[in-house]
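Continuing the series of single-chain predictions for the mutant panel. This is the parent chain; the variants come on the following pages.
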Amino acid sequence: MLTKNEIYEVKIENYGCNGEGIGRIDGFPVFIEGALRGEQVKFLAVKVLKSFAYGKLLEVLTPSPKRVAVSCPVFKRCGGCQLLHMDYHEQLALKKEIVEDCMRKFSGLSDFSVAEVSGVKEEAFHYRNKAQYPVKDGKCGFYAERSHDLIPVRSCLMQNEKDEELIKIMEEYPYQNEIKHLYTRYGENEQMAVVVTKVKKLKDEKFLIEKFKQAGVDTLVQNINLKDTNVILGQENRILYGKGTIEGKIGNLKFEVSPHSFFQINSKQTARLYQKGKDLLELKGTEHLMDLYCGIGSIGLFMADKVKKVLGVECVPQAIENAKENAKKNGIKNAEFVVGLSEDVFKEKMEQGTLPDVVVVDPPRKGCDQKLLDTLLKYSPEKILYISCNPSTLARDLSVLSKSYNVGTIYPYDLFPNTKHIECIVRLCRNDDSSI
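Parent structure:
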């Protein structure tokens, strides 16, 4: 047994689900953030529990060849890029292992297949089209992981390089106590900045308008959030200049993106993910497709040219309005979007005799609602395409759906290089169909 606050040495044998190294001392597992497989390290035991411990990395005695130099000055303090010290090929190998481990633990399936992770090429840095920077004590930055301690930053290897100039503007604004967050979004050729305020009227909005225009920002929005919560955006927006939206792009489709719109962080990799889904479904042009948790309609609209009809369902009214506008923007006439809970609308449509051939689900991290899973099993559409940002809840939901469906190969896509996060896509075919 280890003793808290004592220093030990250990060899790292494997990785945990968050990319931390795992070593064993007399069979007792220790999780050490920042340690790589194969390394001999010195660590401080910071937390010792009944069946495992956490260690703080003090020194790498024998470095792994997979360790790379980190140029970010706040890497260890920020916590946003958990794998920045790891060779990219090792990151992909780790992410595949994470998906496989979740499937073993939570799916109940003895026979499953996970493909190699589809990684990026030249886009491992500066790939994010959205950033949220808290503003506090005259500084912009990110909160340290699991805290509200602000880590000041001027630039970030994951964010758009133009953000550095916008952060500087916020630090120069004379009434910083009015500002809660700087929120930036990037489209295909446009840039939006949103200042989230704790006041309704800015004392010097002319300063901000002039500075953001000089920086080349296409539209500036004041978002008013008077509530003291962890929710970043309030409900009220004031457009200080520009149109208040920008145009994003996924593949050949164009999307109107507002401050509140959900839009995938990594547009290029998202297009590849969606194309994989379209290929997996082997659409013939006669299908009725239901897109559940549809957001602003991006997945359903991407599939619309290969099906007869798309019905998108989302519980956020503003997102449905965006989806309808996006259909018009792209000249897509075979897509309909309705407001409601996915599980309720799906059941309602089934009871009306509107059984889709294909259902696409892209739920939040918590996975599908149990009521929706039960309804899917009851009415059993021919095919389900499941897109997931959380392999644990994906595996849990597949364990339920596998009662009536053959689970195909799981294809992981790296939408978030240098972090622990991974996106997955899998096709399920009803058991009476041919195997996948």
